[in-house]
TrEMBL record:
Residues 1-22 form the signal peptide. This is PEP-CTERM sorting domain-containing protein. Keywords: Signal. It comes from Methylophilus aquaticus.
């Protein structure tokens, strides 16, 4: 009879009982890495369109372009800022990859300061060039996109899930973060490459979006019972081969 050596047996059993473990999929979610105001944000990408707007990691309580008051960072010293003066669109996004997961949740804190009297979501999506009189388009959105999508796309072919759409805290509200949590397990279940996007569009007046403490916490999928069965069958086959070799 062929026996597995104790060390090998222990390793096999450890593999069979390995618990699921949590993974953090977002880099620099607190925007603290640089330790200084920066338009080149570690771990993140930015895109800007239009007459006047900016995307950066910043400290302090005044928005970079418009000088409007903000509450500052939710945690630490820095936060992500999308600052539109008007007739502009901005995007802050990060592409991440993961294997199959059994669960995943997205959390962040967000504020919106809207200098227009309301949020307006037009069918044009993130296009700021639509006629401002007939098509007011002033809002923020948070989406999970297919990796490689245009950062301003709102096409159903690119958007896997829209997590937030509208005006958040309401018109003319400042200095107020709200906390958000979303279950994105079904999107990430099979694994792959994805893009998390925060975006703004404004064709009425100034608009600021501040975001901080962004995290995607995922739990790696535990192998199914048939996977264990295949592993054990493989071990049995190895043992049979070894037995025949010793019998020669």
């Amino acid at each position: 009879m062929i026996k597995l050596k104790p060390v090998v047996f222990a390793c096999v059993m450890a593999g069979l009982t390995l618990p699921a473990h949590a993974l953090e999929l977002i880099q620099n979610g607190g925007f603290e890495v640089q330790g200084a105001d920066s338009y080149d944000i570690s771990g993140w990408q930015t895109a800007e369109q239009g007459i006047s707007g900016s995307v950066l990691a910043q400290s302090g309580t005044l928005s970079e372009v418009t000088g409007n008051a903000t509450v500052g960072a939710y945690q630490g010293n820095y936060y992500g800022m999308l600052d539109n003066y008007g007739l502009s669109a901005n995007a802050l996004f990060q592409t991440f990859a993961t294997g199959a997961v059994s669960s995943a949740s997205l959390t962040f804190q967000l504020f919106v300061n809207n200098q227009h009297d309301s949020a307006s979501v037009d069918a044009a999506g993130l296009d700021y060039t639509v006629d401002a009189t007939d098509n007011p388009n002033q809002h923020v959105r948070v989406d999970v996109l297919k990796s490689g999508s245009d950062p301003f796309s709102t096409s159903s072919a690119d958007v896997l899930q829209t997590l937030y759409l509208g005006g958040a805290n309401g018109p003319l509200t400042t200095n107020q973060y709200l906390s958000y949590t979303f279950d994105i397990s079904s999107i990430l279940a099979s694994g792959g490459s994805y893009t998390l996007r925060f975006a703004t569009v404004a064709n009425q007046n100034a608009l600021q979006l501040g975001v901080d403490n962004v995290s995607i916490n995922a739990v790696a999928a535990v192998p199914e019972a048939d996977t264990y069965a295949m592993l054990l069958a493989g071990l049995g086959l190895t043992a049979c081969v070894r037995r025949r070799q010793l019998a020669k």
